[in-house]
């Protein structure tokens, strides 16, 4: 006999509590956020003490039986729900049948510094949640050990940012609400070279690579896609670096530029003499 949904009415108290997490003030009050879709929920189950509840349709429970079982194993409460309930909680136009509720994941900035990261992405003045999530995903893919969102940047737990990270939010330490001055000072204090990425930068990324200056611990500071980094933020960095445009494109969008910069550092750090070079024993 097919399973019968447990939560029939969108007016259920549990559904109402989940639905309000679409708003930033309630997320901050409850220190909970929504993770939608199989990829995000799967990654959440792999991070201890993160997934609190899972709402899932009968069809999705059958299709993603392994994720549902992992959620139960992780200690999350699993609620079978009809499609109307999922649609009511979800912030997407076409829900995929799974919506998780997760605890906040942010890491104190001091802990990030204590881990001596070799590659860090700092999001300063990034206001678009899709850009923030995509840069986080790029940082994860490039092997960064941490991401820092300054107090002038978007909410890390905005549903659009969570979706755009495609699960990377659950993979690496992220500090939030750090004043950019404190972020730069703290990273410099542990020997990290801080580079500001800006289309009007004096230094060229290709030249930096040719000079061999990028093999050490590095933090990239990324700004607003529309107007870049303020002068005072650029002034905090050790260098302001532009990604060269070899063709006729006017510019690169934020996420593309971030990917180029982070991968340039990752390659330099893994080259001979870089800070990630493995020395044979």
Structure, explained:
There is one protein chain. With 281 residues, the chain is of the alpha/beta class. Helix content is 39%, strand content 19%. It contains 13 helices and eleven strands. It has helices at residues 13-19, 24-30, 38-45, 58-63, 65-73, 83-89, 109-114, 129-142, 159-165, 180-189, 205-211, 231-234, 254-270, and strands at 32-36, 51-56, 77-80, 98-103, 119-123, 146-150, 174-178, 193-197, 203-204, 218-222, 239-242. A seven-stranded parallel sheet has the order 7-6-5-10-8-11-9. The longest helix has 17 residues, at 254-270. The chain is elongated. The termini are far apart.
Q: Total strand count, please?
A: 11
Tell me the Rg in angstroms.
Answer: 21 Å
The largest sheet has its strands arranged as 7-6-5-10-8-11-9
> What is the typical, i.e. mean, pLDDT?
93
Shape: elongated
SSE pattern: HHEHEHHEHEHEHEHEHEEHEHEH
Helicity range = 25-40%
Contiguous uncertain segments of 5+ residues: none
Distance between the termini: 61 Å
Helix vs. strand class: alpha/beta
What portion of residues belong to β-strands? 15-25%
Quaternary organisation of the protein chains: single chain
Please give the largest β-sheet: 7 strands, parallel
Total number of helices = 13
């Amino acid at each position: 006999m097919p399973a019968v949904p447990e939560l029939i009415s969108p007016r259920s108290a549990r559904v109402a509590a989940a639905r309000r997490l679409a708003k930033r003030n309630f997320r901050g009050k409850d220190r909970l956020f929504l993770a939608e879709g199989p990829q995000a929920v799967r990654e959440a189950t792999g991070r201890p003490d993160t997934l609190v509840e899972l709402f899932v349709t009968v069809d999705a429970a059958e299709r993603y039986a392994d994720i549902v079982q992992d959620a139960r194993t992780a200690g999350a409460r699993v609620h079978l729900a009809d499609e109307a309930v999922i649609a009511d909680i979800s912030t997407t136009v076409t829900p995929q049948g799974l919506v998780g509720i997760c605890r906040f994941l942010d890491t104190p900035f001091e802990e990030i510094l204590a881990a001596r990261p070799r590659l860090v992405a700092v999001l300063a003045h990034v206001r678009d949640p899709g850009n923030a999530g995509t840069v986080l995903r790029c940082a994860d893919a490039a092997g960064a050990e941490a991401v820092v969102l300054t107090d002038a940047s978007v909410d890390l737990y905005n549903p659009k940012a969570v979706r755009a990270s495609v699960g990377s939010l659950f993979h690496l330490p992220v500090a939030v609400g750090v004043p950019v001055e404190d972020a730069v000072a703290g990273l410099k204090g542990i020997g990290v070279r801080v580079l500001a990425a800006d289309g009007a930068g004096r230094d060229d990324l290709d030249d930096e690579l040719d000079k061999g200056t990028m093999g050490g611990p590095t933090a990239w500071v990324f700004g607003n896609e529309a107007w870049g980094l303020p002068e005072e933020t650029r002034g905090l960095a050790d260098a302001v670096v532009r990604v060269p445009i070899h063709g006729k494109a006017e510019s690169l969008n934020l996420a593309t530029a971030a990917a180029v910069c982070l991968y340039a550092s990752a390659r330099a750090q893994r080259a001979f003499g870089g800070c990630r070079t493995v020395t044979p024993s």
